[in-house]
Amino acid sequence: MPIAMTPSPPPSDRPRILFLGDNIQYNPDLYQRLASQFDIIHPQSADLHRPAFLQHLRDGSWGRFHAIMRPSWHTGGEMGNWDQELIELLPPSLKVYASAGAGYDWVDVVCLARHGIVYCNGAGASTEAVGDMALWHIISVFRNMTSSLLAARSVDSTQFSHAHHHLPAISYNPRGHTLGIVGLGNIGYAIAVKAYAAFGMKILYHDIVRKSPEQEEMVKAEFHPEIGSMLRKTDCLLLATPSTMGGRPFLTSKILAQLPRGSRFVNIARGSLVDEEALAEALKLGDLAAAGLDVHASEPHVNAKLATMPNVTMTCHTGGGAVETKTAFERLAMENVERVLNGQEPLTPVNVHLIKELMTNGHANGHGMNGE
Known about the structure:
By secondary structure, the chain is an alpha/beta fold. It has 15 helices and twelve strands. Helix 11 links the parallel strand 9 and strand 10.
């Protein structure tokens, strides 16, 4: 069991883990293994809200802990963004912060790197689930599923008949159409594999890193180092690229203008990547035929204009929402912490390369890398 938080933790020779969020649900044996090696401090949720959390860090209430783990995405983030204000208060003993979630736009991984703190995400845990959700949105934007669903749920025979008779004239099969993917990382590539195998779509992609020839050959992918050349050939644009803290939108009116008229758009990445007003205008004018959004710029609020459009499919950022994902998030957070504290390489590091660069250039303070 996690040890109770105390204002002044007793001294211990074992490394200490600050455990943020709900109790472990899916990997109890792994948790017990962790607890047999390390002292685990598990604050109450009230202590995680930002004012209280920062004060506890200032006061040293949890002592000199060596790792932080957040195994659940839906809890443990009550303190908000991990920015410089928060990171500067972390103890010099801290080596690693391992969190659920694939995205890390809420944490300043560069600032962590300057302090020598490794950040690990839940990369790979949600790949299958997000890939499946992407396929659902792809089907929806080609086959006008939202219009059909709304007509059926209206319990109105006139709306049902209208959809039944008129939607086929503006609906298409995905097969043979081009899917342009921005960001062919783990999730982007999984979507490419699924879309190629299930629908026979032509895969185009833009990324800063090109896939190996073998990976490209598996899905007959066509690499575009210049985004414009891909956009001009794209029937459905899909975002699968990470966002960063304070990052600018990727999908703007300038990008939308380069897509063929009547193309489609799907976002399973981050809502902050999209200028939603520009997207709504493109849909209103018919420049885009349809859009599928699992993520939104101002979650948990959705754009009111987009929400009224029958050619826009919306889901509640549930792309990765599956029991298998939650199980893997827990496991990765605990295994990353365990490995780093035992002197091994982490499984899913995000900023180790930044730490090495900063240390080489003399700009990292060794906060965690050379700490206790």
